[in-house]
Specification:
heterodimer; A: Helicase, Ruva Protein, domain 3; B: 176 residues; 5-stranded mixed sheet; 7 strands
Chain lengths: 130, 176
């Protein structure tokens, strides 16, 4: 009886391991899994376009999740995997804008606005002080 | 005093933004994401044969000096049924068409071809969408023109219709 129970438990444990599809199943290394999930949260699904692939049920999003977990398990850094995807789908696929000549205004405009605001504020304050 | 002029500046800026947003309304994001690999060599890939007795598809098959069409399709894809007839007409005109079936199975592909006609040479089976992602493809059907050196000349997103035949034939000539 005890043996049968043990066998049953073993069987229950073995099934999910046998049916591991990295599109849905976490990596065994928690640090790698955290990296993979963080990356998935910032890769845009090319089918249902407003969503990151981490929250999409599209087949292609699952394919991308699988590729991301495999590449990270193989030792690539998340940014290498992101670059690999951007090489194929363009900047569009990344929800985290990269610094490049096309995205420069995106990064520089807030700095310019801040500098402009500081300039206006300093002039005002100086005038008030006088 | 330049103050009276400056006071209009924010309003002007606001109007400019309104104009910009209005133009954006008329020009929505077209939601078609072209592959950025067009003009570049085919990525490395290797797919097993979808049908017994017919070869699978690998990137090395495309460097033999012959231009080819690479058609990404699936037996479950409804518009592909319509497209297969157009591909058959392209084949009649001497175009070599290689297929890659996405998320599919041998029996389903065989059934699909028996029902709708078979314009393909080799057909690869890509059950995990690896080739599709490697290509920067976003769905089915999609058709790539590959030149004789294995470079991607053109990506056609969506169904190929009879109206696209002249353009594809031109590209095939260019790819020789």
């Amino acid at each position: 009886m005890r043996r049968l129970l043990m066998a049953l438990v073993a069987l229950l444990l073995a099934t999910p391991l046998g049916a591991q599809d990295l599109a849905e199943v976490s990596l065994p290394d928690p640090r790698q899994e955290a990296e993979a999930v963080a990356l998935m949260d910032t890769i845009r699904c090319v089918v249902c376009q407003g969503q990151p692939i981490s929250g999409s049920n599209a087949g292609l999003a699952a394919d991308m999740r699988r590729i991301i977990r495999e590449r990270i398990a193989a030792g690539e850094t998340p940014e290498q995997v992101r670059a690999w995807l951007v090489e194929r789908y363009g900047d569009w696929v990344s929800l985290q804008p990269r610094a490049s000549t096309t995205t420069a205004p995106l990064w520089l405009l807030p700095l310019l606005a801040l500098a402009g605001g500081a300039w206006i504020a300093s002039r005002r304050l100086r005038r008030r002080a006088r | 005093m330049k103050r009276p002029v400056l006071i209009w500046l924010p309003a002007l800026f606001g109007l400019l933004l309104c104009g910009l947003f209005y133009a954006g309304l008329r020009n929505p994001d077209d939601h078609i994401i072209p592959s950025t690999l067009v003009g570049k060599p085919l990525p490395e890939f290797d797919t097993p044969a979808a049908l017994p007795g017919r070869g699978g598809v690998a990137s090395a098959d495309f460097t033999d000096g012959k231009p080819r069409l690479l058609n990404v399709f699936a037996s479950w894809c409804v518009p592909c049924v319509q497209e297969v007839g157009v591909l058959a007409r392209l084949r009649e005109r001497g175009v070599d068409i290689t297929g890659i079936a996405i998320h599919d199975s041998t029996t389903e592909v065989a059934d699909f071809l028996a029902r709708n006609g078979d314009p393909y040479g080799a057909i690869g089976l890509d059950n995990e969408g690896r080739t599709q992602v490697a290509f920067g493809s976003t769905g089915v059907p999609e058709t790539f023109v590959i030149d004789g050196t294995g470079r991607i000349l053109y990506q056609h997103i969506g169904v190929v219709t009879d109206a696209d035949i002249p353009k594809l034939l031109d590209l095939m000539r260019e790819g020789r």
